[in-house]
Amino acid sequence: MIRFRVLAHALAAAATLAVCAGAGAQPATQSLAPGAGGPMPADCPPGRPSRQPPRYPQSLVDQDATVVVLLKADRCGFVQDALWEVDEAANAEPEEAFVRAALDAAKKWRLPPLRTGESLEAYARAPVEFISPSYLDYERCDQHRKRRRDPVRPVGTLAVESAARLTVDVNECGWVDSITVAASSGYSSLDRAALDAVKTWKFERQERDGAFVSSQHSVTVEFPKENLEAIEAAGRRWRKTHVDHVAIGVDGKIDGYVSDPQPITGDTIEIIERLRREAVPVAVGPRNVRAYREWGDEIILWYVMDRGASVPALIRFRNVSDGKKQFAATRWRCEAGEGKCDGFEGYLKKGLHRQMPRPPIASPYEPEKPDVSEAAPKMTWRRKSS
What we know:
The protein is built from six helices and 15 strands. It is α+β, with helices and mostly antiparallel strands. The longest helix has 14 residues.
């Protein structure tokens, strides 16, 4: 996962290349508390503030999530723009479908007045909550049928054949309440993959004496050895992320700017248009530089500069590994007129903070070794109380 905390100040120097003339100071982020900015201006369209809930992604109907959005609203409270603000304190990022649903909903909101006076716009931060509409909602239990989602196995275990046996506690609706690994696969990563899959399952509802009751099940999740074609496909994806060795400094960190050997391909304007159309806008970096997140085989963060002197320009951050550690690599492109891109790379080298290396990206050619002993504590999962 790209560490957004490292990149949050990435363009402290480079931002000067994309200053929008006449933009002035950026307004401070405001509270969303009702009436925080006073009464609605008299010349605004009639209507009360409204925050309609997001449309729940059907593929994730059994999961909960919180997506924090940064909203830009006009003086009448109408949202003009919405960005995803990554929560660095969270253990894991929300699914892409949750992020997109949150942004789609927030763009239709009308907020309370955020500030008084002559200011034309303000920013507000708001969490968008996704609470499963099915979990323990007995009237809707039968709207979602029994299903099984296959586990996503880690790349380093594709050549491994094993199985994990789980004890699964199921509530009256058929949703999973808690899981315990009764018999480990021998690999903590496979046990985790089994837990992550089974916690999304829906079981047949159990009935006793005319009432639905909770139940317990024993589930064995098998991990057969993948075929050579699947391993080779994973190998091709891995090779795209592999770079030459990068040295670690005496402070235990590596340079903030590590040049990415993989070029940026395609026309710059077409890339910008594709990002605006398909990628998720992210609230990271200076507000006069647009940031976008792309999902796929690789997770990529882009900075887009399309206003100011050095435009158009792109900066791409990509997760890479040298086999020993993982870090973000940077590639940039500047297509401004003669002399206007001079010093661009120097600005990046100065502006990017040093990175703390993370565990390397797993290789399908280096199988994981068993790491769970019989004496190890049993891995568990429990649904949070609503």
